[in-house]
Amino acid sequence: MFAYIVRRLVLMLVTLFGISVIIFVLLRIVPGNIVDILFAAAGYVDPADKANLERELGLDQSIVMQYLHWIGGLLRGDLGYSYVSEKPALDEILPRIPITARLAGLALLFSASIGIPLGVISAVNQGTRLDYILRVVSLSGLSLPSFWLGLLILMASVALFGTMPIFNPNPQSFGEALAIYCVPAMAVGFRSAALTMRITRSSMLEILRQDYIRTARAKGASERAVNYHHALKNAILPVITVIGIEAAFLIGGLIVTETVFNIPGVARFLVEAIRWRDYPIVQNLVMLIALVVVVANFTVDMLYAVIDPRIRYTD
Amino acid sequence: MDAINYDAELKRAGAHSTHGWRKLTFLAQRYMLGTAGLIIMIMFVLAAVLADVICRFSPLTVDSAHALSAPNSQHWMGTDSFGRDVWSRIIHGARISLAVGIGSTALGSSIGVAVGLASGYLSGWVDLVFQRITDILQALPLLVLALVVTAALGPSLPNVIIAIAIPLIPTVARVIRANTLALRELPFVEAAKSIGMSEMRIALRHVLPNTLAPLIVLATAQLGSTILTEASLSFLGLGIPEPYPSWGRMLSESAAEYVRTAPWLVIFPGVAISLAVFGTNLFGDALRDILDPRQRG
User: Fold this and answer.
1) How confident is the model at residue B58 (pLDDT cuts 50, 70, 90)?
2) Where are the alpha helices (H) located in chain B, listed in sequence order?
3) Do the Cβ atoms of A256 and B251 come within 8 Å?
4) How many other C-beta atoms are found inside a 10 Å radius of the C-beta of residue A149?
5) In Å, how far is B240's CA from the nearest CA of chain A?
6) What angle do CA A72, A78, A80 make, to 5 degrees?
7) Angle at alpha carbon of residue B158, lines to B82 and A252, rounded to 5°
8) How many whole angstroms separate alpha carbon A260 and alpha carbon A166?
9) How far apart are CA B40 and CA B282, in angstroms?
10) Rounded distance between C-alpha atoms, residue B93 and residue B101, angstroms
11) ipTM of the complex
């Protein structure tokens, strides 16, 4: 077990190192850097000013030196400065994390609490009209772009209440907080709910065919006990994998949802930073996202051993 | 891993005949949702191909006198803030979605197949290196990686296709590698080796064709997500540049502010994206059931 964990941690470091190199190189193969953009906006270019600014931002050094400078800082907890706001990147990123984390947490809660029961219902009623309808609904959940769902919700809110929910960092009441976070969380979580439902359904169908289920029925266990106690318990493993991976990959949906609802979280910040070519912000945010993904994957694998005592990691 | 006998599968499922037209009608009846998906996909392909015939207005012509007019007999999906006909833009937008969907799926899949085949067949250090690279690429969500790549390459149609193809490579490579590893141990590969066939020939002529079924299933499943990713990129203003009518772009132009004043600008492009993706997903599901019976739920 210990050897396995150590090996996994080393692989995680290799992956993160690879991401850092790829992102760093990608952002620097673009023709024209931030200095060109700033000066293009100003119209007039004095080469001396330009060289000064490049030196100030460290852009006159070789790409290898720039990379080492960045990684060295990262290891010391110094993420550099935002080109746009000129504030430390850490101060820009940190306050935005809780907002996105809250949204992601709510979205996952929503997707698990809707997706798992509906998946069980669909599997238990396999081949019936109900199963058919639920499958079409879940497939539509995977087909709706989450930004469009967000826009539709805004539209419905205008039609019903004559106003749209506007993000307020300090909600006055519980109801307001609920509207601020839950509505976008549902918009982004609908897709994960659909995915969770599909996986729960197919995993349940596989388990329901097994002999021990027939045994449970034969000894007189109620349908409910068979479905939820005997079957779901064993069918839940792949569902947890999907929820774990979705936890990390939710950021894709959050990028557009935060943009639609104007929520100042990290996901929208990434898009803004890309538009502004604010590389220190972009590269650090991408590293943060990659870190969340590898940690989520690792956690899911570790959870397996906890949930299913038959799984033991040996080397 | 055994090869799948499709005709036997069909017979088992209750088909009377496994030939030609009868086979098709049987499949259409049995997989009604999949057939619906196929019809939707054909509609979109026709819209893309016949766009110039179907539309009365050019998708690019600006007509400020008729800006933001609600759906009417002339412009039956209304016009946008430049007075451009929304119906024409949606029909022409099918071209962009189709180009990106097919282009990036084909590009991503072919590189993925090459990597997966090399990785599974050659094993050793080649496998090790490719495995680590796929690990790295899979540590970023599709949209994030595509965003960074378009940011690096700049917004244009070919760049969007490349940006969306790159994140697809690891998924395809993984599946092909797993299949290749299983196929490599089968007697027919051993037989091919024993008659002195070159490794390259065995890999391309004998192993590769046997990985086609899972590849087709995977590629169809990914078609929908590539269309969605293009829409998201364009929605964020980093995908297909103006004046091309991309569905995602149309929604970003009409976002929040038109939710109140011009709902048709929000509804129709969204319906187009959802329907196109829904069609490919329905079709992809049915295809998976037919080509890969082991995964059938």
Assistant:
1) confident
2) 6-12, 20-30, 32-49, 51-54, 86-122, 124-138, 142-153, 157-184, 187-194, 199-201, 208-210, 212-235, 247-261, 264-291
3) no
4) 23
5) 14
6) 95
7) 80
8) 11
9) 9
10) 12
11) 0.86
